[in-house]
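User: I'm curious whether this sequence folds into something compact or stays loose and floppy. Could you predict its structure so I can see for myself?
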Amino acid sequence: MRSIIEKYRTILVMVLFCSVFLIAYILKNAFQPSIEESSFTAAPVKKEVESEPAKTPENVYVDVKGQVVNPGLYEVRQGDRLKFVIDRAGGFTEDADRKMINLAVKVSDEMMIYVPKVGEMEPLELPVPSSGSESGQDKLNINTASQQDFEGLPGIGPSKASSFVQYRDENGPFTAIEEITNISGIGEKTFEKLKEHIFVQ
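Assistant: Here's the prediction. I'll summarize afterward.
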C-alpha cells in the first residue's frame, strides 16, 4: 500500500494542486460580480436637474379710501382681486354703497380704490334730462352707468365701454366729463361726440 502511494505521490500532488487552483478560480468568479455590483450601487451617478426658480407675484401698493373699516395704504400682490383688498381693509362699513364696486377687478400698483356712501352717487334710474341736447334724449351719468349703458353711447363698443368702468373702479368717481380723455383710446374727437350725451353727478 505504501509503495503504491509513493509511486503515485507526484500525481496526487498535481491533482491536489489543480483542485485548489480550480476552487480558487471558481470562488473568485463567484464573488467578483457582487463586488462590482455593490461598488456601482454604493456610488451612483448623480444626475443634476436644473429647475427653474418659481416666480413669485410682485408686491404692489394700493390706496383704499371711503367707506371701509380701515382706510389706508395696503401692500398686496399684483393681480389680486379687489375683494381681497377690501377684506384686508376690514370690509365695507354699513354706509358703503357696495353695488358701485366691482370686486372682481384685479389691482395694480398705485391704484386708488374709493368706496362711496349709499346715496353719494345718484342711481341710474334717476337720469337728468338734457337741457342742451337737440335730440332731447337723457344724458348718461358716467359715475353710475354700467358697461351696457356705455355701449349705448355713439362710437363706444364693448372694449371702450369696459375701459370706462375700469377707469372709474381704479380712480374713483369722475369729477368732470373732460376726465374721460384720460382713458386710453378716448381722444378729443371721441370726447366731442360724447360731451352732449354724458354728465357727472
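Summary: Residues 59-115 form one domain. The longest helix spans residues 9-42.
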